[in-house]
Amino acid sequence: MELPVIDLEPYLDVVSGKYCGDEVLNPQLKTACSEVSRTLKETGALLVKDPRCSAQDNDRFIDMMEKYFEKPDEFKRLQERPHLHYQVGVTPEGIEIPRSLVDGEMQNKLRSLPKESQPLTPSGPDPKWRYMWRVGPRPSTTHFQELNSEPVIPEGFLEWKETMDSWGSKMISAIEAVAEMAAIGFGLPKDAFTALMKNGPHLLAPTGSNLERHGKEGTVFAGYHYDLNFLTIHGRSRFPGLSIWLRNGKKVEVKVPVGCLLIQTGKQIEWLTAGDCIAGMHEVVVTNRTLESIKAASQENRSLWRVSSTLFSHIASDAVLKPLGHFAQSPLADKYPPICAGEFVEQELSVINLKGNRGEL
Ligand SMILES: [Fe+2]
What is the CATH number of domain 5-14+26-350? Predict the structure, then answer.
């Protein structure tokens, strides 16, 4: 299935230019906003093109992360912070546990899916590494201090901070534009979501999967799960493998065109819309398309580490998650009682005995 690609440029031209403040959107832009909210609702995902996030920016980031993940395990483990619950620095492979392994309700749900749409069953923890890097300003006062720790920079990577911060802030800008367009499409004020994202504990959390070691078809890199944050964004990976589940339960493999970004809905947007938009289920598995890319990369002598340039955007920890605007009148609103976003994240993570604020379970 081809997801539509939304070009953010016309919207950005309007909001950053002549209509500051009380924008009057032209009919085409209103249609684009409705397409954003409708696609998020129906598919839990969206492809966008943002002129501020070029394919070259994405390449520069992935090149650096490949160089990092190719380092020996002993080097990478110097960036491991288990006492900080892996909130910053590296998380080695074999630590993250897919929720489908521990959540009985989710296991029942996935058993009810038609055979062709069932996820692959992981046999244990995810065989992928992850690096956690915070992006954006932190709140001066917060009730959730433990979610905010000092960044970790690997030795010898002089470009690390600049590359991480620059790619991270570009992806947040793209998310903000999508969040505004979605708010308009959902019939909410333009800043309904972005006002709550201010000073949120956003995380740039690229993953590294060693396809040389784990490149067998059917290997599950990220077992069937949803993201607990607001919206997740990824640049294009050099190796395909991500599948998403549409609202109707159908499983589809995502193809991200060059120069595009992929957005996925997390649990926090589900809360704010009283389930009108639900958190998208997804998994990352070695498929035959991944095998083709592995073959091509080997022939061209390129890295066999699959890097995902994932960024988890969050609602600020001290902001309250509750159905917004007209969603408060939804018959499902009772399922989404008011809760501080920071408390919500802690609650979700306690399910699998992890702490911190990473975006996925
Ligand atoms: Fe995820």
Answer: 2.60.120.330
